[in-house]
Design brief:
Layout (H helix, E strand, L loop, with lengths): L2 H6 L7 E4 L3 E5 L7 E7 L6 H6 L3 H18 L6 E4 L3 H4 L8 E5 L9
Antiparallel strand pairs: 1-2, 2-3, 3-5, 4-5
The protein binds guanosine-5'-monophosphate (5GP) and zinc ion (ZN).
């Protein structure tokens, strides 16, 4: 069982922002900024390493990039935003289904890099 697979299948409700054939984008349940959207491939990959090894991984990552642009357009993030992927234990990943946080709607100051 995977939490995000259940959200993708509609078994658990979410606030959808955008979806296409390959990607679902929904609002994070615990937002850290006015916009905090999770961009999630509809096919289960554990993390960025897993998707990088898959034959169809590049297709899904291409769809992810388009979906990020759509989310930015929908939420009016023309002045900028941040995309974060947490990977594995040391990266602080808590849901083991690869996803990208799109964060914005405010001037982001807490820069690590
Ligand atoms: P990670 O820590 O793996 O990078 O990110 C997981 C994210 O999923 C967290 O920001 C957390 O708030 C979010 N999250 C966890 N459970 C749910 C849920 O049931 N619904 C939604 N919309 N977000 C969730
Ligand atoms: Zn999953």
């Amino acid at each position: 069982m995977c939490l995000f697979c259940d959200i993708i299948e509609g078994k658990i409700p979410s606030t959808k922002v955008y979806e296409d054939e390959k990607v679902l984008c929904f609002r994070d349940i615990n937002p850290v900024a006015p916009t905090h959207v999770l961009v999630v491939p509809k096919k289960h990959f554990d993390d960025i390493i897993d998707i990088s090894k898959a034959d169809d991984g590049a297709e899904y990552l291409g769809a992810v990039s388009k979906a990020i642009a759509k989310v930015a357009e929908i939420d009016g993030l023309g002045n900028g935003f941040r995309v974060i992927n947490n990977c594995g234990e040391d990266g602080g990943q808590t849901v083991k289904h690869v996803h990208f946080h799109v964060i914005g709607g405010v001037k982001l100051t807490e820069k690590m890099i």
